[in-house]
Write a structure and sequence with these properties.
Elements (H helix, E strand, L loop, with lengths): L2 E11 L5 E11 L3 E5 L6 H8 L7 E6 L2 E2 L4 H6 L1 E4 L11 H11 L6 H10 L15 H13 L5 E5 L7 H16 L3 E6 L2 H7 L2 E6 L2 E7 H5 L4 E8 L15 E4 L4 E7 L7 H10 L4 E8 L2 H10 L6 E3 L4
Parallel strand pairs: 3-8, 3-9, 6-7, 7-8
Antiparallel strand pairs: 1-2, 1-4, 4-5, 9-10, 11-13, 11-14, 12-13, 14-15
Length: 318
């Protein structure tokens, strides 16, 4: 499969002397979902900011669709959609005006049918005439996604897309990402939630202290992680585990307010996705998920060095 993004020996040192990236080389394949994992401050956001033309590299080269991001900035940038970690909308504009403007900034002809389709897919159509300031945090994040998609990019960057969002929006975003991939869009996801990478990614890269430690197919990587526990916080407590869920390794916890699922992450099929779907069929609503295992830094440094690491919790600012 050909590469749509090629990164060669990329380095970034800020004026303060901080070295955010140290000779990173990477290829992203067309039509894949690539998850870039690492703790906060590892270099994830700096890397995608350089690829998207928001930060100048200190050294190295980046090609997007064979266009150099420095010499052919406009062509390279036109292929990219970016959903940033921070909310960056004009709070006084309406949803519709914001999305229309984003399409126009890329020199695209008006396409009201496309805009309507994107807004409907993101459950924003009914709010199209509302000002951004009146929207919830989750809806504001949906607007960012609409802005990133409206110029029909070939590559979509999602920088910590579900940090601080509710479970419903997280599931909606997972479904949307799969639809985009099925339509040929390449997705690059940066996250420190390993559950997100396991749910969606085809390949996984691990970055720490500005260095790319590892790039592997998800199935290969998951076989190395060992046993994990997924704690599912329920909206309403239960007194016993439903018979329909008996086939899963579940235990009750927190006086019936939580289910704990133990599984072997070395298996290609962990059963997590099936379990969550079955919970919905049983009418068991959940409000939060926590996966207990080593931190990402501990796991991946340990994988390379062959060392035992202490077990910590992923997903809480690792």
């Amino acid at each position: 499969m050909s590469a749509i993004i090629t990164v060669r020996d990329l380095a970034k040192t800020y004026d303060s002397g901080f070295q955010a990236l140290k000779g990173v080389s990477l290829e992203i394949r067309r039509g894949e979902i690539f998850a870039l994992l690492g703790p906060n401050g590892a270099g994830k956001t700096t890397l995608i900011s350089i690829v998207c033309g928001l930060v100048n590299p200190s050294a190295g080269q980046v090609l997007v669709g064979e266009h150099d991001i420095v010499r052919h900035y406009r062509k390279a940038r036109s292929l990219i959609g970016l959903v940033p970690q921070e909310l960056t909308n004009n709070m006084f504009d309406t949803v519709l005006a914001t999305v229309r403007l984003s399409r126009g900034l890329f020199g695209k002809a008006p396409d009201e049918a496309l805009i309507e389709r994107i807004l409907r897919e993101l459950s924003l159509w009914d709010k199209r005439n509302e000002r951004i300031m009146a929207l919830s945090g989750g809806m504001k994040r949906r607007v960012l996604i609409a802005k990133a998609l409206v110029h029909e990019p070939q590559v979509l960057f999602l920088d910590e897309p579900t940090a601080g969002v509710d479970v419903e929006l997280r599931r909606d975003m997972w479904a949307m990402v799969r639809r985009l991939r099925d339509n040929g869009v390449t997705i690059i996801l940066t996250t420190h939630y390993i559950e997100e990478a396991e749910e969606m990614a085809d390949r996984i890269g691990v970055i720490n202290h500005g260095e790319l430690l590892l790039v592997e197919d998800k199935a290969t990587l998951m076989r190395k992680l060992g046993t994990r526990q997924l704690t599912i916080q329920l909206q309403q407590p239960i007194t016993e585990i439903p018979a329909a869920l008996a086939c899963h390794a579940l235990t009750l916890a927190d006086e019936g307010h939580a289910l704990v699922y133990t599984f072997d992450a070395k298996c290609e099929q962990t059963g997590v996705a099936d379990l969550l779907r079955q919970l919905e069929r049983e009418g068991l609503e959940f409000k939060d998920l926590h996966s207990s295992q080593s931190s990402l830094e501990d796991i991946f440094v340990g994988l390379l060095q062959g060392q035992e690491q202490p077990r910590l919790r992923v997903g809480e600012g690792a």
